[in-house]
Amino acid sequence: MTEGPSVGLFATCLVDALRPSVGFAAAALLQRAGCRVEVPRAQACCGQPAWNAGDRRDAARIARSVVAAFEGFDYVVAPSGSCAGMLRVHYPALLGDDSAFAARAAALAEKSYELVSFLVDVMDMRAVDARFAGTVTYHDSCAGLRELGVKDQPRRLLATVDGLVLAEMTDAGVCCGFGGTFCVKYPEISVAMARTKTAHIAATGAATVLAGDLGCLMNMAGTLTREGSAVEARHVAEVLAGMTDAPAIATAKKDG
Amino acid sequence: MDATSRDFPANAVRALGDATLGRALEKLQREFRRDRAAMLARMPEFEALRDAARDIRAAALDDLPALLERFEDNVTARGGQVHWCADAAEARAAILALCRAAGAQSVVKGKSMISEEIGLNDHLEANGVVPVETDLGEYILQLRRETPSHVVMPAIHLNVTQIGDGFRDAHTDRDPHRALDADAILAEARDHLRDRFVTAQVGITGANMLIAETGSIVLVTNEGNGDLVHTLAPVHIVVASIEKVVPTVADALTLVRVLARSATTQEITSYTSIVTGPKRPGDADGPGAFHVVLLDNGRSRLLGGPFRDILRCIRCGACQSLCPVYGAVGGHAYGWVYAGPVGAVLTPALTGIEEARHLPAASTLCGQCEAVCPVRIPLPALLRRWREEAFARALSTATERRLIRLWAQVAARPLVYRPLLRLAVAALTLAARLAGGGGRFRTLPFAGGWTGARDFPAPQGGTFVERWHAARGRGP
Q1: Domain limits, chain A
Q2: pLDDT tens digits, one per residue of B130-183
């Protein structure tokens, strides 16, 4: 087990705080792909809230701490297109003027990946050993899709999950309305976008919606449960890892 | 035009409550997505064409002063005249003076966003010159005294019933009980405008592009009204902003190829006209005089700063037609001439970030706009740049800035962050249990923005990082 590349798992603040099962699923998938997974204790957030709020100085401070904590690994992998995009696309822009960190940020960016695209594109994973009975639909998160080109990889692996049927929704690549702090700064617009998304989800007849970002998933799940929908929301890593014992997002264990 | 961008949140909530508007926007975006996919399928080289268009626009901006001088020289050489205007007031005054010199009581107009930007119609009307919009969408809006909500489909927010009501209110000489479907509306507008074309002393158009090597303007339209405006009236006034200039006819035609496809998903619009100077001896038709009113209005200032790339914009409106925020609230909520992503970058630049701070903030940065922009303007990066400007000037609420800073200070120090996070997760987990489980919160203190219409997921318990290390400590 010592031959595989070392991967620093950047759990993301939302997974870390709210849904550790996604972190364990991500780690399991990486290990099955032959990676040596490590989870640095010195991790918090990728800095997007500050970066997207226009607080460049604080965002840079966070970015430097992430670079320092993760630059020793062969790869850095996050179960999120949004946070991986932050490391891969935005850190070089954010730290480009910092003479001590520009080169280090660029080097980190090079080896930072979103989980599923890393498994398929870098580790050449072709199939998963998992079972999930039922019809699912998949939401393409914005940053994963448009910053990192994550689109076919999750679908390819989902196609190898035993018992799973994928029903594509209309406008799978259109934003769900989460948008980080946008969702609480302009809640009415955010909710309108979320309801458009949940209507598309419902129209597929799928019992479960999957995505690669917990932010989007919380938005969709929270909207679905409030609407009284029975559609469940899960991170795609849970299904690909065959680790779906935990209740779906924003639901509790069913009695009996 | 007076801006109400400051009131964006209230404007947006009002728009969200308008079901008719919601249906119009849903239809626009659904059909535009479908038609754009078909257009792209017919043209696999579209991405390469976008690169070419971006390069043409970027090079033109690099050479803007020289190109504008060349444009003026060539307009003059062909018997026309260029009027340089630093701001909206100068442009309004120049156009009014030209109308008066022509003895105009009425002017016919082709569609022009610059005319909206400088508030031309109100100014002409206040000074005794009657402006008549001849683009159907603009005519509809003029009758209803509304402003455009989209740069290429100005009346896209209205349905046939609303348009028909506007016609009944305005055309009082007709039977008030007449039926007005889409065809009848078109026929009535034609009927009404026909005389205006013939009697107007001045025709005013915008310009999709200015061509430096010939002193020509390019007009891209679908209704043919633009050509009637500039060929029938004795005087043609073009109003255009300075960044519209490109070096050659070939450059302009490359841009036309991405413009029509991006604006309406057409290969080419029904009319694409290159207009050069006044009527020459021997010409069958054309105006006796040709004037170009060139508007700066803050653009030369943008050229030297971080927002330069927005000047590449060719006003196709694709970013509006596909933006999910625009799709939720429509164009009027943005509160000024330009809506959607382009408006959210341009409006703060032209009206001030104090006035327009909400526009760059009200985006999920989903990247759809950049993904479709025919000249590859990095719109999300420019929106974020405006947020930096707003943050530096402390334009957002103090609470919001304090929360972001506090979060950032803690998140940059994992040694401080981790115990605080464990505590917060433990508290939230306990609160979820006390609230009766269910795996979610229906309300949370200080999180009304979220829980007003969405549940918030309860944490699973424990943090991932600590649980991972605990499990490894026990394991082999």
Answers
A1: 6-121, 126-240
A2: 999 999 999 999 999 999 999 999 999 999 999 999 999 999 999 999 999 999
> Which of A65, A142, A222 minimises the CB distance to B414?
A65
Q: Do A222 and B439 touch (CB under 8 A)?
A: no
Q: What angle do CA A141, A145, A149 make, to 5 degrees?
A: 150
Q: At A67, list the tokens.
A: 């670079």
A167 touches chain B (CB under 8 A): no
B394 touches chain A (CB under 8 A): no
Does B234 contact A at CB distance below 8 Å? no
Dihedrals phi, psi of B280, to nearest 5 degrees: -95, 160
- A222 and B457 within 8 Å at the Cβ level: the answer is yes
Class of the CATH-defined domain A126-240 = alpha beta
User: Domains in chain B and their CATH numbers?
Assistant: 1-37+309-396 (no CATH), 45-297 (3.40.50.10420), 408-474 (no CATH)
- Judged by a CB distance cut-off of 8 A, whether residue A194 touches chain B is yes
B contacts of A59 (beta carbons < 8 Å): 408
With a CB cutoff of 8 Å and minimum separation 6, the contacts of A210 are A136, A137, A138, A139, A154, A158, A233, A234, A235, A236, A239
Residue B40 tokens read as 């792209």
pLDDT of res. A256: 36
Q: Report how far residue B283's alpha carbon sits from residue B454's, in angstroms, rounded to the nearest whole number.
A: 67
Other CB atoms within 10 Å distance of the CB of residue B175? 8
Give residues 311 to 350 of B whose Cβ lies within 8 Å of A. 324-325, 327-329
Q: What is the pLDDT of residues B286-335, one digit of tens each?
A: 999 999 999 999 999 999 999 999 999 999 999 999 999 999 999 999 99
Chain B contacts in chain A segment 102-141 (CB below 8 A): none
Tens-digit pLDDT profile for residues B25-44: 999 999 999 999 999 999 99
**pTM for the whole thing?**
0.96
Q: What is the maximum span of chain A, computed from C-alpha positions, in angstroms?
A: 60
Per DSSP bridges, beta strands A6-9 and A75-78 are parallel
